[in-house]
Amino acid sequence: MTTRFNKTFFFKTFLFLVSGLAFASDYDVQDILFAMSEKWSEVDDFTCRMESYVKLGKKEQKQIMNYYFMKPNWIRLEIIGGDNTGAKIVYNPIEKMVRAKAGGILGVVAFKFSPDNPRVQSIRGHRIDNNNIGYIISRWREYLKRYKISVSFGDSTITLEATGVDTSKYNGTYSEKLVIDSKTDLPIYFEQFDMSGELIHRVFISDIKINVGLRRNFFNL
Length: 221
What we know:
alpha+beta, outer membrane lipoprotein receptor (LolB), chain A, eleven-stranded antiparallel β-sheet, 11 strands, globular
């Protein structure tokens, strides 16, 4: 009788601890996303260097960009390396339109596009109007509601990994890894993979500067 009691007690205790760990993991993710949201709420404008890699089938797209953001969602990209070097792209959140100039001698004239036009999207269809940290946060809030997320902590980073993502929602992404600077609560980079585990999208973010005093006329093109 004593043996049975001890086994039952141990089993129930084990279940409680496992449940507690699962709950703690969910809490960790919510807390991390809340900290990111709080930090983002303090941002009026934002500049950084972005290095982007996108793959679709055998096609690859590599770009290095100077990135500028001002709330509510003014975005300016200047491609300084890789594909389409010299091009400049601006998103106007009031018009909900994109203006783009090609690099070189063709960059005299700015062309106007809808953000869903493939000419101003990546080869996988990533849109400029979704190219901001607020969108990253909202994407991970969606992941938290629907998909499995694991958390790991480094010396100065926090890593979130989501799996089982609906590939029709985020440009073919089945799993994603997001690495966050634990001191600033801002993302350092993310990687997205398809169902086969192949890397299809990666963005490194560096040289981050917050609230530098950008003005609306900077987003004219």
